[in-house]
Amino acid sequence: MHKNEIPEAVVRRIRPRWFTSVMGTGIVANAAAGLPGVGSDLRGFALVVWVFAAIWLAALSTAWLIHGLRFRETARGHTDDPGEAPMYGAVPMALLIVGAGALIIGHDLIGMRAALELDWTLWTLGTVGGLLTITAVPYLMFTRYRLRPQDATGAWLVPVVPPMVSAATGALLLPHLPAGQARETLLIAILALLGMAAVATALIVPMIWNRLTHFGLPNSSLQPALWIVIGPFGTSVTAATNLSKVAPGTLNGPDVSAVHAFALLYGAPAWGFALMWLGLVTAITVRALREGLPFNLSWWSFVFPLGTLVTATNGLALRTGSTVLEVVAAILLFALIGAWLAVAAATLGAHGRVIARRQVSWLRRVQPQ
Question: pTM score, two decimals?
């Protein structure tokens, strides 16, 4: 057995869904740094988490590229798999979240200029990737896969949400563009990205509700994906409140008033639905844990959607000045950190054991007899 067989065995296992771990880690950093009061106390923690997310993104992207070159048949199989193909949406979202983190917290370490350059690069790559997933994956669902109503799952949202994440993170870049055509173009792009993802979400969520109503809960291993429904609602509210936050001094007077109104009139109802769904899936998850919920990478569905709810709650708190919302955001943040630590530990435990077993087997084979 060659000395590079251990890394190759790991690379062979890479799948698009692994990028959900980058999303979950990145959103913890962004949410922790952005919370007023609490965020200042957690800024050092947030920076460390962001650095880890950035390193993990670079390592995982490199491994995934090698996987695509060395194991082409396996990589093509991911596209042919209706359970794995939607997870391609995790790749652009990982880029977008880490890029936004550079602007939110990473500049403390690398400086604002480098943070801006990194964010623009990752935002561009993530936005292009998101436009691909929101068109290519539904195309495969319509033409190649044979899906039934009872197959509807929260994972169907993963390929259509990236443009919404582009809208939420792109709003942070608006003030860094010169006034005029450049800024107006980005604003229109943000609204278009938000719209396309919101309409797609509005088409998919009723399918999931219908599936649950008429066919009951899926297998316990698939139930964590129900948390993904929170993601588009939390992300869209975050996009609206981010626009509202940067509007003064960035947009014209009438546009500022319109953005403020949209952030509140859309944001509050959408946040309410996300909070209701959080209660629902929490009850479902507690039930599944009591029955014995097996670990798999879908557990990362607990993390990123909850993170978007934290950023949405924080955005509404800043928009309204509500102390109650600030408290709710802080509670959700600590729940998010707890969920991230638990899922990260479970991931390291499960995959660490696999790598350890392979290493022991390798050592036995190369050890002189």
Answer: 0.91
